[in-house]
Fold this sequence. Notes:
Layout: E1 2-4, H1 7-19, E2 24-29, H2 35-47, E3 50-55, H3 75-84, E4 89-91, H4 95-99, H5 117-120, H6 124-139, E5 143-147, H7 151-163, E6 169-173, H8 193-198, H9 201-214, H10 220-232, E7 237-246, E8 261-269, E9 272-280
Parallel strand pairs: 1-4, 2-3, 2-5, 3-4, 5-6
Antiparallel strand pairs: 7-8, 8-9
The structure holds pantoate (PAF).
Amino acid sequence: MERLGSKDEVRQAVGEARRESKRIALVPTMGALHDGHLSLVRAAHERADYVVVSVFVNPTQFAPGEDFAAYPRDLERDLDLLGAEGADLAFTPTSEAMYGGGADVTVDPGALGAVLEGATRPTHFGGVCTVVTKLLSVVGPDLAFFGEKDYQQLTVIRRMVRDLDLPVKVVGCPTVRECDGLAMSSRNAYLSRDEREAATVLYRALRSAETLALDGERDARVLEEAMCGAVEGESLAALDYVAVVDAATLAPLETLGSAPARALIAARVGSTRLIDNLALAVG
Ligand code: PAF
């Protein structure tokens, strides 16, 4: 696996792969890789001939006071994992390499970026959209892979790609979970032993909504109350929000109908903020 830090070098390497008629995939990450990320790399390999993985902890998607400085970083381990997974190129820019040319013009994530996560983190999706646009511009992939774990991010990026006519296909991949249901996340590393146990409450809450829906409950408020109730029963967890939304538009639903629906949850476990989501099928 090749490792490159400059945009020009990456453009050149990808250009060579393209001249060999290879189909190019990009898997954007912030490092601290886990099996969720590696599942994206595997999915990318199934659909492309040349897989680029970016490892960049993007400062512009963290607000002051968030965990940018503390965000887990272990580049050598990440590179070992990516090499073992057969990635072709790791793009590992510094902040200077990424933003040194100037960062005055940014991408507005629109209304989708202002709700749910955006209500608590108003600058987050602007930072995500801007860095993803830059990565897409540098790599020029045919396909870009994102995890459903960050469901709102995936939805915002799909919308951005559509509205800005970006020539890339966005592929969403299923959340990878620990045996007890906790969604894999680099931030799980912050959890103490007790918090790690308590953190399963997010999945338990989502499952309670899923079960109700499968049993025929259509009222979204009933599902949301069930999720709230599950989190209230966990003393180490503090709920931020639960929502039952249209899976494509993230619009809040009153009733489950024929359109795909999604349950989303955000909660603090100790001082760690975690998010998760699940598709809702109507029984
Ligand atoms: O999901 C992430 O890890 C990040 O938000 C992303 C997409 C790599 C952009 O920095």
